[in-house]
Design goal:
InterPro entries: Rege-1_UBA-like (IPR040546), RNase_Zc3h12_NYN (IPR021869), ZC3H12/N4BP1_RNase_Reg (IPR051101), Znf_CCCH (IPR000571). The longest helix has 24 residues. The chain contains 13 helices and 11 strands. It folds into 3 domains: 41 residues; 161 residues, Rossmann fold (3-Layer(aba) Sandwich); 58 residues, no CATH class.
């Protein structure tokens, strides 16, 4: 009791408030529960109360947060859903070439993918593109809407992987390794139609990560469309795949197509609304129960006849 008193006194709470909370919760209450109760009662540390009552009025910015500081310590005011969403790492070359039908490096495809994840609320979005894509387009490597790369670089979304020229030859770093490494470290999602088989063989941890966190996509009439079931029919939904805390769907029972004519009893895997408050017995069990009741009634009638 004394150790808890000292602990919360150091935080700045009054002894009277601490005693009231300990009397309500008991001496064996956890420190987190005591702190929550103190915040719920509206008590504040003395240092914060002195700051909350200044001698002169101060101007407060419009739209400023008015939540209690104690809530921030407990993390209860994190209403922003972006904290629960995974980081997004986009294979820029793969997305741009897919949007350009594997003929043109279409930067607009990258912008469509970035906008799709922005609308969902993702805050960490990174696009990796080789540095030589900054150069003027050539006939063998045409680029469309190259100004989009500059805009995304200013927004700290696009990252150029290093490349240089040695004796007239271009030396390019392997951008796929950047993509997988950053996504693995951030525990995020890789957006690409590439399977990265060489990197899967290189590192067993990367192999599992690529298999479980690779988000494939399609472009339908300039519309970025990832699948609703990224890991197959029996896998998670797209919203659960992109969130750190997946939400389990409620189990929905399919009604039995036979209805009251069903003869499976408790072995039927479908939902029977008429059996909601009854024990689902099989047909054989129901017949046995009926015969037992009939035999019991017959014995009682015989006893009544034999009795004087």
């Amino acid at each position: 009791h004394q150790s808890k008193m000292d602990f919360f006194c150091k935080l700045g709470y009054g002894k009277q408030d601490i005693c009231k909370v300990l009397e309500n919760l008991g001496q064996e209450a956890l420190e987190d529960d005591v702190l929550k109760e103190l915040i719920r009662m509206g008590s504040k540390p003395q240092a914060l109360e002195s700051q909350a009552q200044p001698s002169q009025l101060k101007l407060v910015a419009r739209g400023s947060c008015s939540t209690a500081p104690g809530l921030q310590w407990l993390g209860e005011d994190e209403s922003d859903s972006s904290h629960s969403l995974r980081a997004i790492v986009i294979d820029g070359s793969n997305v741009a070439m897919s949007h350009g039908n594997k003929e043109v490096f279409s930067c607009w495809g990258i912008q469509l993918a970035v906008d799709w994840f922005r609308e969902r609320g993702h805050t960490y979005i990174k696009v990796f593109v080789p540095l030589w894509r900054k150069e003027p387009p050539r006939q063998d490597s045409p680029i469309a809407d190259q100004h989009i790369l500059e805009e995304l670089e200013k927004q700290s979304i696009l990252v150029y992987t290093p490349s240089r020229k040695v004796k007239g030859k271009r030396v390019v770093c392997y951008d796929d390794r950047y993509i997988v490494k950053v996504a693995y470290e951030r525990d995020g999602v890789i957006v690409s139609n590439d399977h990265y088989r060489d990197l899967q063989n290189e590192n067993p941890e990367w192999k599992w990560f690529i298999e479980q966190r690779l988000l494939m996509y399609s472009f339908v009439s300039n519309r970025f469309m990832p699948p609703d079931d990224p890991l197959g029919r029996h896998g998670p939904t797209l919203s659960n795949f992109l969130s750190k805390k997946p939400v389990l769907p409620e189990k929905k029972w399919q009604p039995c197509p036979y209805g009251k004519k069903c003869t499976y009893g408790n072995k039927c895997k479908f939902y029977h609304p008429e059996r909601q408050h009854q024990a689902q017995l099989s047909v054989a069990d129901e017949l046995r129960a009926k015969t037992k009741v009939q035999l019991a009634l017959g014995k009682e009638e015989e006893r009544c006849r034999c009795s004087p």
